[in-house]
């Protein structure tokens, strides 16, 4: 590993540890100890840009997370747990925090969340739009009509569609290339592929979805050449739910040709 590559790896590791809640000094100290194997406060201070007096505070923080052991020698020696063990601890902590957060939010949320969401809501960013699509697919009970371009039909969306089909939800899909159609037929064999009334690939449209006739989402791809996104943030969507929601009413009328054909 070249010095530049090693420096990049250290910077990435420090940044990620900070994201998981460690202080900057603790993150620098831990990464330094991983590189050293074992070391004293003087050793850490020399390689980690941490004042020697602050190394002891950082080690106390790391010990609280179970990331560092201390040898009671003179001077004290510090030892960091392995990268694999660290990853496992962080992953378990993340899962625990996610479970606690979900449980707390479940207690706050009304017992019966309103199906009717007044108005039309805006979502920006491809990842966030995908999250909303996944939520709608996972909550589907009867039918999903989904038009999209192949680049947005990611593996997690395909997996969600496959799971929905396994629950008995009817899946109808359009707008994708022949290669993507072949993939869908392999992974979601119960999905019905249909031709849209317009050339989906010739527009900046990203996704058009109707779930159970009551939840809809429409997205567009912006700021990219020929309507294709230049960054993952260049997708914007609007969505609504409820039989009387204005967006649902309009899209249900647009989808009438499809809904009637499939019945």
UniProtKB/TrEMBL annotation:
Residue ranges of domain Transcription regulator TrmB C-terminal in the record: 120-220
Superkingdom of source: Archaea
Xref: Gene3D superfamilies: Winged helix-like DNA-binding domain superfamily/Winged helix DNA-binding domain (1.10.10.10)
Residue ranges of every copy of the Transcription regulator TrmB N-terminal domain listed in the record: 17-84
Family that this chain belongs to: Belongs to the transcriptional regulator TrmB family.
Descriptive protein name: TrmB family transcription regulator
Organism per entry: Halobacterium hubeiense
Taxonomic lineage from the root: Archaea, Methanobacteriati, Methanobacteriota, Stenosarchaea group, Halobacteria
